[in-house]
Design goal:
- The structure is a single chain.
- The protein is mainly α.
- It contains 13 helices and five strands.
- The protein has helices at residues 2-6, 11-37, 46-57, 78-87, 99-110, 121-130, 137-153, 156-166, 176-184, 193-202, 214-217, 219-225, 232-236, and strands at residues 66-67, 173-174, 237-244, 247-254, 257-264.
- The strands form two sheets. The chain has a three-stranded antiparallel beta sheet with strand order 3-4-5.
- β3 (237-244) and β4 (247-254) form a beta hairpin.
């Protein structure tokens, strides 16, 4: 009995072992979840669950969350392109993080300006899908981890597909299908260039306005938030390409014709 007690491992070693196991389980579970969602549409998101819980706690019994997943072929090509133009114009080029935008935001904060966001579409997809709202180093660290997993596991088109389906486009309105029906009375596949641009313009100020109110209520807020107006001339005729190895990924629009895919040489 005495020998067994003496050979027992110290407490700090047992705690360290438990911590390492917990980290390994988290890494494996998070990667398997991201891998599964590469093929399976998410039934909900962390932001949607947080919104549901918040309304229940505040007694908002008349709240109705709108969300309906639609696959890529049933989304008008102009919708994801408008989101790129509004939110993350370097999306085809980066690997999840816009280092230049992050550095610029840090420099502006050092000069006394308000700290602004520099999240990419990949980061926002990770945040909306897996995390809670708010700002903290812990949340940012977990967000960075999921961003790396998403960029390593999903294609660029899959990231855009998921983001377009779970992005908040109004109070309780999530995804282009729900937003298209709520604001324009059409399906996501029927969105025109103007409607897609209005939806994309809501993204940086989500919850503050809707596309219908955008021209009247949100122009000042839209300009003051980050100054990134959609450049209509550039939006109507633009071509964004990324070259990797023998292939060339491209997102291109000329007038109302849009292509997104991988071109092999």
């Amino acid at each position: 009995m005495q020998d067994r007690f003496e050979t027992r491992k110290p407490l700090w070693r047992r705690l360290l072992r438990a911590l390492l196991i917990a980290i390994a389980v988290f890494i494996l579970a998070s990667w398997l979840t991201v891998l599964l969602l590469r093929f399976v549409p998410p039934a909900t998101s962390a932001f949607m669950l947080e919104r549901r819980v918040g309304t229940a706690l505040h007694g908002e019994h008349d709240f109705h969350l709108r969300y309906r997943w639609v696959p890529w072929p049933k989304i008008a090509p102009v919708a994801p392109l408008a989101m790129i133009a509004s939110e993350d114009q370097k999306f085809p080029f980066h690997h999840g993080f816009d280092v230049q935008a992050i550095q610029s935001a840090i420099d502006e904060a050092d000069q006394g300006e308000r700290l602004r966001g520099a999240s990419t579409i990949s980061q926002q997809t990770a945040k909306n899908l897996f995390l809670w709202n708010g700002r903290s180093f812990v949340r940012k660290g977990i967000e960075a981890w999921f961003t790396v997993l998403i960029e390593a596991t999903w294609s660029k088109r899959r990231i855009l597909e998921v983001y377009a389906n779970i992005a908040e486009l109004g109070d309780g309105v999530y995804g282009v299908e729900a937003a298209s029906q709520a604001y324009f009375g059409v399906h996501a596949a029927q969105l025109n260039l103007h409607e897609a641009a209005l939806l994309a313009a809501v993204l940086p100020i989500r919850g503050a306005c809707t596309p219908a109110a955008l021209p009247f209520m949100c122009s000042a807020a839209r300009h003051g938030s980050n100054g990134r107006w959609l450049n209509w001339a550039a939006f109507r005729t633009c071509s964004i390409r990324i070259r990797r190895g023998r292939g060339s990924r491209y997102i291109a629009i000329t007038d109302d014709r849009v292509r997104l895919g991988l071109h092999r040489r």
